[in-house]
């Protein structure tokens, strides 16, 4: 039977603890402690004492006929858009939450087995969740991790984990603003005394940037391209702020008029036009959170600046655009892609304290 209890430790940044599989061995240090950034695009795992041990795309290839998992991670990602009818390569997470429970469970099981190997005891796992998830979405994450082999499951909000990973001291009574742009969601939060004062989560992030590029190329050039080509364009020449020098890149796609393969040249100025709308949605969301922030905390943010984390913030010029629109200094964290996983890893140090208080 599952048992849930709210835990308030280290200024409330660990949301809750769920006993997934109770055992007489609990609390005696058996098994590994794993922190997982369960991202829409990438799964990053942190093991206490070892650091980041796994970084894999959250893609699973399944045989439709036998329901057998054929590949997980990087191998499955190479199959995207290139599979026969009986094999489907999918992303089981969409917009930061689980869209296919069964496949997510299998993916987590594969990754946990890869991390733990032949370890006898089940691990304790801490998983990041977006700041505005529903109770149903939380339960889906908890159940998937429990069924995948976790002894206990802990949840932590992504912007808080990102702030810890970026090296911000969130325990003090001063405002810190974090903008975490991942693959499926952008989480924006004002943090003080270890908790979110004002936060929002919008489903505009890396994947929406890719979709905007696909739509733009289709509309302007009458050429259909895939997700991977759109991502290559975004990484290599994508920008949301004018560049000093216009750069270009050749891509191949399917001509929608002739139906034949076609090579076209795309310029960074076109990418700026394509990405303007989703970028401004993020800027507007930051502006909205700042409007709701108490005056004292807003003054702190004005002094300290806004911290950007997540792979999506690496989009060229996004920090400059945000700084221009808000008038506040914007800083990109040192290891943006791994920030959430690193923060989760630092939070793992408190698990023994959590379990000790729960027993008492």
Strand tally, please?
20
Beta-strand content bin: 25-35%
Instruction: List the total number of helices.
Output: 11
**CATH fold assignment of the largest domain:** Nucleotidyltransferase, domain 5
Mean pLDDT: 83
> What would you report as the Rg, rounded to the nearest angstrom?
21 Å
What would the principal axes of the Cα set say about the shape? Answer: flat
Classification by helices and strands: alpha+beta
* Terminal residue distance: 20 Å
Q: Order of strands in the sheet with the most strands?
A: 1-2-12-11-3-4-5
Helix content: 25-40%
Quaternary state of the chains: single chain
Q: Any idea of the CATH class of the largest domain?
A: Alpha Beta
- List segments where confidence is low: pLDDT < 50 over at least 5 consecutive residues: 1-30, 356-360
Biggest sheet, in brief? Answer: 7 strands, mixed
The CATH homologous superfamily of the largest domain corresponds to ATPase, nucleotide binding domain
Tell me the count of domains.
2
Q: Per CATH, which architecture of the largest domain?
A: 2-Layer Sandwich
């Amino acid at each position: 039977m599952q048992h849930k209890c709210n835990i308030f430790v280290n200024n409330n940044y660990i949301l809750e603890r769920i006993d997934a599989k109770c055992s007489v061995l609990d609390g005696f240090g058996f098994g590994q402690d794993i922190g997982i950034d369960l991202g829409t695009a990438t799964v990053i795992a942190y093991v206490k004492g070892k650091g980041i041990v796994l970084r894999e795309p959250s893609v699973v290839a399944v045989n439709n006929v036998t329901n057998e998992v054929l590949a997980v991670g990087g191998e499955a990602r190479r199959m995207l858009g290139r599979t026969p009818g009986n094999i489907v390569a999918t992303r089981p997470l969409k917009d930061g939450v689980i869209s296919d429970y069964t496949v997510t469970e299998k993916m987590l099981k594969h990754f946990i087995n890869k991390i733990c190997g032949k370890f006898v005891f089940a691990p304790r796992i801490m998983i990041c969740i977006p700041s505005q998830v529903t109770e149903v979405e939380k339960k889906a994450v908890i159940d998937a991790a429990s069924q995948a082999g976790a002894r206990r499951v802990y949840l932590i909000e992504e912007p808080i984990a990102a702030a810890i990973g970026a090296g911000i001291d969130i325990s003090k009574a001063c405002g810190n603003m974090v903008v975490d742009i991942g693959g499926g969601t952008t989480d924006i939060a004002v943090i003080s005394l270890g908790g979110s004062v004002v936060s929002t989560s919008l489903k505009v992030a890396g994947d929406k940037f890719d979709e905007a590029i696909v739509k733009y190329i289709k509309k302007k050039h009458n050429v259909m391209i895939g997700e991977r080509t759109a991502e290559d364009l975004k990484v290599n020449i994508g920008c949301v702020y004018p560049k000093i020098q216009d750069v270009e890149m050749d891509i191949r796609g399917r001509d929608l008029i002739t139906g034949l393969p076609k090579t076209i040249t795309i310029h960074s100025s076109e990418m700026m036009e394509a990405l303007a709308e989703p970028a401004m949605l993020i800027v507007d969301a930051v502006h909205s959170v700042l409007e709701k922030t108490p005056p004292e905390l807003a003054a702190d943010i004005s002094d300290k600046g806004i911290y950007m984390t997540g792979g999506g913030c690496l989009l060229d010029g996004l920090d400059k655009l945000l700084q221009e629109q808000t008038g506040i200094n914007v800083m990109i964290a040192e290891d943006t892609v791994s920030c959430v996983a690193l923060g989760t890893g630092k939070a793992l140090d408190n698990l023994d304290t959590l379990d000790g208080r729960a027993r008492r």
